[in-house]
Amino acid sequence: GKGEGVMDRKAMKKMFLSNKMAVVCTVLILIIVIASLMAPLSPYDPDASNVAEKMQGISSTHILGTDDIGRDTFTRTLYGGRISLLVGFAAMCVAVIVGTLFGTISGYMGGAVDAFMMRIVDVFMSVPSLLFIIVVYAFMPRNLVTLVGMLAFFLMDQGSQSCACTDPDAQRARFCDCCKSSGCKPGNYYS
């Protein structure tokens, strides 16, 4: 009922707020996200060099100093944070979608198909991801799409395994029974 969902949220909120490390980390992540989103408000261009101000230390005009060609380090850090957050968020979204789909198909099909698909996941889990990314990056175009794709590829394994493990319950779910009784083919149950 409606009351149960509210209680669950309240319990989750209480549990979250009682974990001081989770609260501190959430605040830090929010600060990083907000600061990165506000990067265009910086008075400095992240790519503009100013040789007269090169290698300056921390000051009131340059919070983190300047680099060897006079660019403001703080501004460059903020803009770099935007790229890092974009890559991380996009890779996680792709990994969740693809991993869930892969695991759901594997778990639903069961038997030899499930065993084969999970062995594919096992192979990719056994390959050192950094080594694979370096090798693939040598032959693929060096852009954000390639990077997001490769990161997502290595992040999807846990999601696909957990979906494959829990999905046999979905085979016996009521909506599958309804689909069978209405004449749907198994491949159309989830569409």
How would you describe the overall organization of this protein?
With 191 residues, this protein is mainly alpha-helical. 70% of the residues lie in helices and 0% in strands. It is built from 8 helices and no strands. It has helices at 2-18, 20-37, 73-109, 111-126, 129-139, 144-166, 168-171, 174-181. The longest helix is centred in the middle third of the chain and has 37 residues, at 73-109. The radius of gyration is 24 Å and the shape is elongated. The protein starts with a helix and ends in a 10-residue tail after the last helix.
Secondary structure layout plus pairing:
Layout lengths: L1 H17 L1 H18 L35 H37 L1 H16 L2 H11 L4 H23 L1 H4 L2 H8 L10
Helix pairs in contact: 2-3, 3-4, 3-6, 4-6, 5-6
Protein traits:
mainly alpha, 191 residues
Which band does the percent of strand residues land in? under 5%
State the total count of DSSP E strands.
0
Mean pLDDT: 83
List low-confidence stretches: none
Q: Total number of helical segments?
A: 8
Task: Give me the Rg, rounded.
Answer: 24 Å
Distance N terminus to C terminus? 27 Å
Oligomer: single chain
Largest sheet: none
Shape: elongated
- Note the run of SSEs as H and E: HHHHHHHH
Structural class: mainly alpha
